[in-house]
Amino acid sequence: MAEVTIEEVRYILAQNIKRLRKKHGLPQERTALESGIDRTMLSKVERELTNPSLETLLKLANRLDVPIAELLKEI
After folding, report:
1. Is the model's pLDDT at 61 over the cut of 70?
2. What angle do CA 17, 37, 25 make, to 5 degrees?
3. Is the separation of the CB atoms in 29 and 39 below 8 Å?
4. Which residues 6+ apart lie within 8 Å of 47 measured at CB?
5. What angle separates helix 54-63 from helix 39-46, to the nearest 10 degrees?
């Protein structure tokens, strides 16, 4: 199995969150508010600038109505 870098994981995570958010027709601000996280945190995650906590990932997955694993699934 090939080694995965943190940059690759950030990219996959960012792409999945953006794709799922847009599929639900949700702007960043509303997604963050309804997830219980700060909008700037969501923005940083989507721009691959930070590593979200498991708690943040769980909140986003719940709002986007997907299992947490879906956020890390390769496209």
Report:
1. yes
2. 40
3. yes
4. 14
5. 90
Residue 58 region by backbone torsions, left for phi larger than 0, else alpha for psi between -120 and 50, else beta: alpha
Is the full-model pTM beyond 0.85? Answer: yes
- Domain locations in the chain? 6-63
* pLDDT per position as a tens digit, 4-59: 999 999 999 999 999 999 999 999 999 999 999 999 999 999 999 999 999 999 99
CATH topology for 6-63 is: 434 Repressor (Amino-terminal Domain) (1.10.260)
3-state helix vs strand vs coil in the chain, percent to 5: 65, 0, 35
Amino acid at 35: S
Q: What does each C-alpha distance from 47 to 2, 3, 16, 17 come to in angstroms?
A: 24, 22, 12, 11
Could you identify the residue written with the tokens 């990219």? 11
